Amino acid sequence: MAVDSLYTLLDGIRELMITAQTANMREICRLTWFQFLMDYPLGERRLTNAMTFIVQNASGYVFESGRTSALEIMSVIVNRFADEVLLPNAAEPFFLGLVLVIAKGDSSKCREMAAHLLPKLIWSAETASSVLVIDSELSEKVARAASNKQQKMHELRRAVLQCYGIIIEPLGDRFAKRVPALLAVVDSALSVSLKTWKQAEAQLNAGQQAAAGDLEKIAANLHSGSNPHDKELAYWETAYMALNTFGKYVSASLQRAMGEADGSRI
After folding, report:
1. What gap in Å lies between CA 132 and CA 245, rounded to an integer?
2. How would DSSP label each residue in 68-83?
3. What PANTHER family does the entry give (predicted)?
4. In this structure, which of 5, 49, 102, 120 has its CB flanked by the most CB atoms within 10 Å?
């Protein structure tokens, strides 16, 4: 009974590290809960529940202060348990949670924190197959959906491109194994964008002859649901993101090649 009461108490502290109204209280609760995590076994079920709780609040808690507190404890766990058993268990939910924050978060601070943590997570968990499986399967799913215009697939494609853009430079040579998946996602994004652009252009030419030659101006003056160019605009943004991400990969590859060439001449 005493042990159960202790775990119940720590569950309350875990809750307060998200919901407490003062930054000082949230920090104290984070430190207390993390110290308990280091000193006492949680068991697989409790550990899974704890990681799920953190991830859900990192992306879904109503106040930014609680979301940043969840991201703070995620960062501590990634940095502290890089070579231990906890990180493989946390890697999958953490990876998906960070992707969600980056792709759909409405707080720039939270997005920046997630973008900073994602490369660390993947770097630290290279020996844990879960992260490698997740990002490769995510990319393959997007690549297979090249002709799928559903909004969920559109958001997923953009999320993958954003994440690859973030991790290309920090991972360095370790990114090489992800290049085929990156190219597949870039090709998917550009193919869908081009196809949708042509469809929107055809509709505009058929219905608005006077404006058919000025798609950029039409796009700039769109409002939701009133024009066939609406669906194209989102894909235009995805195409830009695809080209930008590919540009980062090319730039990073050239820099590494130049560095290796300079090193060989020394």
Report:
1. 19
2. HHHHHHHHHHHHHSTT
3. SMALL SUBUNIT PROCESSOME COMPONENT 20 HOMOLOG (PTHR17695)
4. 102
256: burial class by Cβ within 10 Å (0-12, 13-18, 19+)? middle
Burial of 106 (0-12, 13-18, 19+ CB in 10 A): exposed
Across the range 37-57, mean pLDDT stands at 84
pLDDT band at 132 (very low <50, low <70, confident <90, very high): very low
At 130 the pLDDT is 46
DSSP tag of 213: T
Distance, in Å, from the CA atom of 42 to the CA atom of 56, rounded to the nearest integer, reads: 19
Collapsing DSSP states into helix, strand and coil, what is residue 40? coil
